[in-house]
Amino acid sequence: MSNEKYVKRFSKFIVIAHWTNAISFIMLVLTGLPLFLGIKVPEFLQIVHRVFAVTFLLPTPFMILMDRKGFMQWTKNILSWKSYDFKFLAVFPLELIGKAKNVPKQDFFNGGQKLNSVLTILGAITMVITGFIMWFKELFPVAVVRWAYPVHDAGMAIMVAVIIGHIYLSVGHPASRPSFMGMTKGVVPESYAKAHHGRWYDELKEKNEI
């Protein structure tokens, strides 16, 4: 049997919020794709799309209410960019094929995860604002509504590309697969934490939490 130890990474509330957001986004893409392609769809599909647009918004207030500390840690970390984050991004292509050397130690989130989060947030804000305009178009000038449609489509395309990369790095890339455990069981192997999030691991050691 393996003697691998595990490190707590996410609370159950963060896990629930993550999967609520992920499922909502997937359903938004599936129900919105026909509209994006110009295919006439039944009114029911549009209603389903709007329902998941609402559930897509729920994870943020849920995290703030149920795990404010975890939410603040995520927010603070993804907005805190240091030189080692940019160095990580510089060697990231080599990291993908296992050829990177001297990869700098990373925070709770590495440079790639920070970039992913920032792009996801910007994409989500774009989708929410334009989606609101499209939903309640009678409240806005015609010119604004017309612009909302292509901007909404562009936001969707960017977010889909980001999510595909996120999924690959979570379950497709061998070295990163343990991170998927963090979003299912809330823990990751200690060896993974040390290898991929060295700065965070060192902090845990200093606090005697490992």
Key terms:
elongated, 210 residues, two-stranded antiparallel ribbon, mainly alpha, 10 helices, Fumarate Reductase Cytochrome B subunit, 2 strands
Helix content: over 70%
Uncertain runs with pLDDT below 50, 5 residues or more?
none
- Give the overall pLDDT as a whole number: 90
Question: At the first level of CATH, what is the class?
Answer: Mainly Alpha
Per CATH, the architecture is Up-down Bundle
Q: Roughly how many Å is the radius of gyration?
A: 19 Å
State the major sheet.
Answer: 2 strands, antiparallel
**Which fold name fills CATH's third level, the topology?**
Fumarate Reductase Cytochrome B subunit
- Helix and strand element order: EHHHHHHHHEHH
* Order of neighbouring strands in the sheet with most strands: 1-2
The total of helices stands at 10
What distance lies between the first and last C-alpha atoms, to the nearest angstrom?
21 Å
How many individual β-strands?
2
Explain how this protein is built.
The chain has ten helices and two strands. With 210 residues, the protein is mainly α. It has one domain: Fumarate Reductase Cytochrome B subunit. Helix content is 71%, strand content 3%. It is elongated. It starts with 5 loop residues before the first strand and ends with a helix.
